[in-house]
Design goal:
With 451 residues, this protein is an alpha/beta fold. The protein contains 15 helices and 15 strands. It is 42% helix and 15% strand. The protein has a 7-stranded mixed beta sheet, covered by helices on one side.
């Protein structure tokens, strides 16, 4: 009997040991990650991203984004939350959440980001922690100088409006080449660089995968920002994605796209179409606008909403044709270009009901910056179309001062002049604009919680 009891005890001990080993070696895999084939495929692709040749990364990233777009909000949120720290899919999933206006389960995985260079003072309670010495790279002469002027003035408005300690600031002309200007800024001891302004220049300075001094580029090129650097842009692609989310949030799925032929219009409409399809929507038709040319509009029964990548003057000419086709009562969403060529209420009555994204500064007060009317009374660079670039320059200063807070705090954003600004896991600044609607021929702000 003693031998029998001994054998049973030995068997139980072996079973316990085996169970203990299993508990150590077998990892818990969350249900969404383990059992959702879409999420699982995206995770596999993300694990390969870093090892792919540079030419293949963009296509791989696009495939990941397409897969994540197929998930509903709840599945995407649960899946992102279940991913372990350091998982390469997390930054993709987090960006998808932010594009939908959903919260992050935790901060992005930043890797090599550092904010203690040059012995910066500690951050203030609100996260204000600017660099010690900042270089601003802009085309101060040549063809792009006119675009750089309002950016410069907006940046200086934010800089001089700050009453706490400010960094030393120096300007560098990029007319002879952004790479040369950057090298000079590094040699002269700047610990942070803002700029350059054109897409080609951004690609040039981002060619170094480990730049000696981090940058806040003022455009978005074909290269991703290196770790520690960021990219801020008023890109047509971002506007198209924002408009697609606005349309989807309204419940519309079948969208008629009408676009003009300039570069910004094509880029915005292309991004909207791609994002719409990724998120389960449909492009009912995609039409090119030509002044006076005949447009064959589809039946209104096949359309839930209309997207207009047009200037105001083009929309004036098109509006009666939309009405004749029964589309005037459909939700109509435009790009910010719609305000170009507007301003006369008697003519803009044709645009009534059209909603478009706009800079927050243009429709309501923004803390820290004078009203647009007040700024316009003082400087030409805050008037008319230049006002958008003035607001962009002001926000570039905010990002310079609060980049650490945005990078390291989950769900952190700042109220900027162009909209609410946040930072995705790849160093791209995301902007949630305000919205306006033409009513009685006048652009009227739409409440932020009303769309």
């Amino acid at each position: 009997m003693a031998l029998k009891h001994l054998a049973i005890a030995l068997l139980l001990a072996i079973m316990a040991a085996v169970a203990g080993c299993a508990s150590v070696e077998v990892q818990h895999i969350a249900p969404v990650v383990a059992h959702n084939p879409v999420f699982a495929e995206a995770r596999t692709l993300a694990s390969q991203q870093a090892s792919l040749p540079a030419a293949a990364r963009a296509a791989n990233a696009a495939r990941i984004e397409t897969l994540l777009a197929q998930l509903d909000d709840a599945s995407l949120s649960r899946g992102a939350s279940d991913l372990p720290t350091g998982d390469p899919l997390y930054n993709f999933a987090g960006r998808a959440l932010l594009n939908r206006g959903l919260p992050l389960p935790r901060a992005f995985d930043r890797g090599d980001w550092q904010f203690d260079a040059a012995n910066r003072p500690p951050a203030d309670r609100d996260g204000y922690r600017p660099p010690v010495k900042v270089a601003l790279l802009l085309p101060l002469s040549g063809n792009l100088a006119a675009a750089a002027e309002p950016v410069r003035d907006g940046f200086l408005t934010g800089y001089y409006g700050e009453r706490r300690h400010r960094p030393e600031l120096r300007f560098y002309d990029t007319t002879a080449g952004a790479s040369l200007a950057y090298a000079r800024a590094v040699a002269e001891g700047n610990d942070f660089v803002v700029g350059p302004l054109s897409r080609e220049e951004v690609d040039a300075v981002f060619a170094n995968a480990a730049p000696p001094v981090p940058l806040l580029a003022l455009n978005r090129g074909s290269r991703m920002p290196p770790p520690g650097s960021a990219s801020f842009s008023l890109s047509p692609e971002d506007e198209g994605i924002t408009a697609a989310e606005y349309i989807l949030d309204s419940g519309a799925r079948r969208v008629l796209i009408i676009s003009g032929n300039d570069d910004a219009q094509r880029r915005a409409s292309g991004a909207l179409a791609e994002h719409l399809l990724q998120r389960g929507g449909q492009v009912a038709a995609r039409l090119d606008y030509r002044p006076g040319a005949t447009l064959v509009l589809p039946a209104d029964s096949n359309i839930d909403a209309v997207f207009l990548a047009l200037k105001g003057s083009q929309a004036h000419e098109l509006a009666p044709r939309l009405a004749a086709a029964g589309l005037a009562g459909k939700p109509r969403v435009a790009t910010s270009q719609i305000v170009s060529g507007t301003g006369k209420a008697s003519e803009d009555l044709l645009l009534d009901g059209i909603v478009y994204p706009t800079e927050t500064w243009g429709v309501r007060d923004v803390p820290g910056i004078p009203s647009q009317a007040s700024a316009a009374a003082r400087t030409n660079s805050a008037r008319g179309p230049a006002a958008r670039l003035f607001a962009f320059g002001y926000d570039a200063w905010l990002l310079t001062a609060y980049l650490e807070r945005l990078a390291l705090s989950p769900n952190s954003d700042i109220a900027g002049a162009t909209g609410r600004l946040s930072l995705d896991g790849f160093g791209n600044v995301l902007r949630r604009p305000s919205w306006s609607r033409f009513t009685g021929g006048v652009a009227v702000p739409v409440a932020d919680d009303a769309h």
